[in-house]
Every structure is written in C-alpha cells, then in structure tokens.
Amino acid sequence: MPFEISNENFRNDTMYHQFGSDYTNLFGCGFLNKKDKKCKEENSIFKHYGIVLVLNGNGKHIDEDGNETTVYPGCLIQRIPDKKQSLHINPDGSWLEFFICIGKGMYESLVSMDLLDGKQTVLVPGLNRAIFEHCTEFHQLMKFSHPAEINMLVPEALKIILMFHRLHKENSSNSKDREIVHKASMLLAKPSSYKVPIANIAEDLNIGYEKFRKIFKDIMGVSPHSYVIQKRMDIAKTYLIDKNKSIKEIALELGFADAYAFSKQFRKCVGLSPSEFRKEC
Asked: What SMART domains would the database entry show (predicted)?
C-alpha cells in the first residue's frame, strides 16, 4: 500500500524541555501543521539546533547567503544555531512537519566528531512509513514521559537525527533520480497537469514509465497516481473552505468528469463528502 499520512495527523502537538537556565539547551519535538501567517518565516535565527522533516506540503528554504532550495516531503531542514534562514510555505494548509531540537553545545560536539553536516541546510533523507513511525514513536515517548525522565530520551533523539544524516548520505548517490522525482512532483502538483496522463510526464522527463513509477514511490513514499490524488484533495479543501466555488466548479477545475466522481473520491480520502466538509469549516 502507498504511504499516506492520515488526516488526524495534521495537527499541532509540540513539547519542550529546557535543561538549566540557558535557552541554547532546549530539547523538544513535535508535529506542526502550519497555516496562514505561519507560512512565512523571515530571517529566523535559532539559538539551539533543530531538524525539520517535511512530511507533507511544499515550500522554499532560503539560507543565510540567499541560496533558495525547494523543499517537499522527505526533505530535512537543519536549524543551524546562529545562522539566519527563511522558509516560505505554500499557504494551502497542507504543510506538515516533524521537528526535534537539541542544545547548541551538543550540536557542536556532533559536528566536531564529523557526525553531522554543519554546512548544508537542506538534506534529503527521504520519507516512508518506517521513518514516519520513528517520528511518531519518539513523539509519544516524550509526550508521556515523566519530566524527571526526559533527559533519558536525549540519546534516542540523537539516534533519529543521525539516522536522517545517514539516509541523506545514502540517497546522495541517487541524486539524478531525486532530481527527476522532484521535477515530476512539481509538475504533478499543478492543476493544469491533472488531465495529463502520468506516462506523458515520464516521457517529458526522458524516463520509462515503469522505472519512473518505481523511483517516484521509493523517494516520495506514494505512487504518482496517489500523489496526484493527494494534491487534488489538498486544493479541494482550500476551495471548499473559501466557499467561492460550487462543488461542480471545483470538480471540473480539478479534472474530474463530474461532481459525483469528485465527491466519491473526496469521501474516500477525507471521510466526509465535500458538502459535509464545507459545513464543518
């Protein structure tokens, strides 16, 4: 089955613990579903070290030197201490991230031992069900641990951070495949591409369809078809919340044959009909 994140995971659920009085010794983790004004972080400077794994949605990261990098599910943003950076998220409500933050001193020790890449701000460890379960399991551990036992979870947090760095190094050898999948994901997310056969997208990228399907699922965690459906549903939710378009208009704009076909797919993915979803907004 393709890996998809259920709607119940699109929430804000964070926790922090500070060791001593120094803010650089912050320890925390959580899930963030950023919307509206939270979609743009300009010139942020962090005193601690953090990782942000993109679980859903797309955006643009800008480092201290002004270098821009498109970020998408499977990308990991490093919040390097005292380094200015910006993040612009597509404001469609689909952004979901998992983060872990640790103390600045601990980060500096790991860099000095060459265990972390302290220069590259965006890594690509990838995303699959096993990675997502690592995140949720650690989140639950931290959420339900007694405050006196929080410090015992630091080694587990470091294991996850180091795992992401290891996966990034392993995936770097597949950079050509990643570039193809990244270009494809950008094309498939555009409403203008919803009526274009996925095989045509693969052909435009000079890759065979079967190989394209395989590398897309390996890197993105879902098949190209499931990815397109997910993006269509994300846009549909935005349209339904705005209430400026009829359900029939939304269906046609998103490439469905009629309102019935759209409603059937929406209920399958969201658990509610478009009308029910709109009433609850």
From this structure: HTH_ARAC
Q: What is the pLDDT of residues 187-199, one digit of tens each?
A: 888 877 777 889 9
The answer to whether the predicted template modeling score (pTM) of the entire model surpasses 0.70 is no
Please answer whether residues 29 and 21 qualify as being in contact, where contact means their C-beta atoms are separated by less than 8 angstroms.
no
What residue segments make up the domains of the chain, in order of their start?
7-172, 175-280
**Topology of domain 7-172, per CATH?**
Jelly Rolls (2.60.120)
pLDDT tens digits for 226-247? 999 988 898 899 889 888 889 9
Helix (H, G, I), strand (E, B) or coil at 52: strand
Q: How many helices (H) and strands (E) does the chain have?
A: 10, 10
Contacts of 23 (CB under 8 A, 6+ apart): 47, 48
Place of tokens 């390996």: 218
Nearest-angstrom CA–CA distance, 81 and 77: 13
Query: Domain 175-280's class?
Result: mainly alpha
